[in-house]
Design goal:
Blueprint: H1 2-16, E1 21-33, E2 41-49, E3 59-64, H2 70-75, E4 81-84, H3 89-97, E5 101-104, H4 107-121, H5 123-129, H6 132-149, H7 155-180, H8 189-199, H9 201-204, H10 218-234, E6 236-239, H11 240-258, H12 263-273
Parallel strand pairs: 1-4, 1-6, 4-5
Antiparallel strand pairs: 1-2, 2-3
Helix pairs in contact: 1-11, 4-5, 4-6, 4-8, 6-7, 11-12
Length: 305
């Protein structure tokens, strides 16, 4: 079964490269028999087509024993486009290494430490006291408020509107942080939030220059959340082979759901159809089996599709 589904996974990997923007995230996972001491962290990486990608959505998981740069370096080898990430340093390094790869930052991550402060103090109290964390959240909220109105526009129109309205807010936000930074303790939650934003300033501005790039990485976090929910139930994976198989299954299931298919019926269809072509000299037959193919059996499609 794994060999059959690997053919689909590999083809989806090729199709993923067609997206001008990818969104990337990773989450720890425990694999009990990977040759290391008990409790050693492995990672499940996720790569998905950008939120504003006009083509069919693709979600791919990849299991790796570490969080080392060698893994995204190999997975994104020869990729041309922009990767939206959460600020993990390895992507900055990849951008320096790969001339055609660009990194964009995540405004959702930029707001998190400020949100933690406001939540701890209480929204009304934080507002009444005029805390810097509340002010930061308010400014980022204004950026998001406009961004929400641009979601249905074409990439070109979105970029134009961002230059007319969002860019001014972003400029004001970074100017304000640089003015206020001396007013907070560097190791405080607000101080750490300020420093994160300044460290990521270059990447947090990228979405202003490209209408295809979303303001945050929430789409990637959303699809990895399904894996995390499952992880909370089964806790660990027994073997490396099991982890790799899980990555393939999750990839095809999440891509199927994103394309309005019934995952179980889609797997059933794939495992019926692929063996019929195992003697073929090439894998062109996979085209009609992809989640967005019009030749798929109606049994795979949701009734409201």
């Amino acid at each position: 079964m794994k060999e059959d589904l690997w053919l689909v996974y590999d083809r989806l990997h090729q199709e993923l490269y067609k997206s001008l923007v990818l969104q990337v995230d990773e989450t720890p996972v425990l694999v009990t028999k990977d040759g290391r001491p008990a409790g050693s962290k492995s990672y499940m990486w996720v790569y998905r087509t950008g939120k504003f990608y006009g083509g069919a959505p693709i979600v791919l998981y990849e299991y790796q024993r570490t969080r080392n740069i060698i893994h995204p370096r190999e997975f994104l080898k020869n990729y041309t486009g922009t990767c939206v990430t959460d600020g993990y340093q390895v992507y900055d390094t990849l951008e320096k290494e790969q001339e055609e790869l660009r990194v964009a930052g995540c405004w959702s991550h930029a707001r998190r430490r400020f949100a933690n402060v406001v939540k701890a103090v209480g929204k009304e109290k934080a507002k009444a006291k005029g805390t810097l964390a509340y002010d930061a959240l308010k400014q980022i909220g204004a950026i998001y408020q406009i961004e929400e109105t641009l979601s249905q526009l074409s990439s070109q129109e979105r970029q134009q509107q961002r230059h007319l309205s969002v860019k001014t807010l972003v400029e004001a936000f970074f100017l304000w942080i640089k003015e206020q930074q001396k007013e907070v303790l560097p190791k405080s939650e607000t101080g750490k939030g300020f420093q994160y934003c300044l460290n990521q300033e270059k990447y947090l501005r990228v979405f202003l220059e490209d209408g295809n790039v979303p303001a945050d990485n929430n789409a990637a976090e959303l699809v990895i959340r399904g894996f995390c929910i499952g992880k909370a139930n089964w806790h660990v994976i027994d073997t490396i082979e099991g982890a790799k198989a899980s990555a393939i299954v999750y990839s095809i299931a999440e891509t199927a759901k994103a394309n309005d298919l019934k995952p179980y019926k889609y797997f059933e269809y794939l495992l019926t159809e692929i063996p019929e072509h195992m003697e073929d000299k090439n894998t062109n037959f996979l085209t009609k089996l992809l989640p967005w193919s019009e030749e798929l059996s109606d049994s795979c499609k949701k009734q409201n599709h």
